[in-house]
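ok so I'm stuck.
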Amino acid sequence: MTTRPTHDSTARELATGTGVLRYHEAGDGPPLLFLHGSGPGVTGWRNFGGNLPAFAEHFRCLILEFPGFGVSDPVDGHPMAAAPAAVLRLLDGLGLHQVDVVGNSMGGIVAAQVAAAHPERIRRLVTVGGIGVGLFSPSPGEGITLLTEFAERPSREALVRWLHSMVYDPALVTEELVEERWAQATDEAALASARRMYGRAAVAARAAAAAASDRPPYWATLHRIQAPTLITWGRDDRVSPLDMAIVPMRTIPGAELHVFPDCGHWVMIEQRAAWESVVLAFLTRKDPA
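replied:
not stuck anymore, here's the structure
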């Protein structure tokens, strides 16, 4: 691209039957959808805006803003439960039958759910931490515990503690990052959404519902994914520890795992150049004859 994509120059809107979906678009080529994670002040742009220049050289990049995080119109129900339908609404609204998908944390879980339920819609899948189930490390992880603390008692100090759990290098937690996250996270609607996802009562209710349900957890359906899959992870992830990668690595057919050293949960930010190189190689690799 000749000019670096900016937040405003890439901002788009799509009106749907259940509200407006907002997203960012840059580049030309095969469609590549980015799905962001959760947490205080998160947006798709903050997760992936820095990666757009590298990927927009090869792909038509779409960064979806999930409902329930203060950008797209909110919908009823739990934001994570509503997210797969939002993905399909975006694809259908843009007339896209099949896309490549990159999902960070919650976004990776959502991408895996869509890929398992609608295998014809996902050509290749890349996840960044988060996916799977803990086998050896304490659960929930440190970052999730700090996220619950923030949801229960929002404060700037609680936000800073959570942000530090997301990274290996504390220097990445700048005043600018804290301020922009604080402004978004304390929006009334975004804070209510965070409590629905990570408040203690919400976590307990989900655990009780899961125990009483006959439906398998999403990680037990990963074997249904047909898309070639690249699992990426930070070795020092304190939100979703590395042992979570074992189940998806073994159960997603043909899945590949790449682990980045000196790196926390935000691999696409903390090891940006290395991560972009690995992901681009995977997405542009020729299909087997």
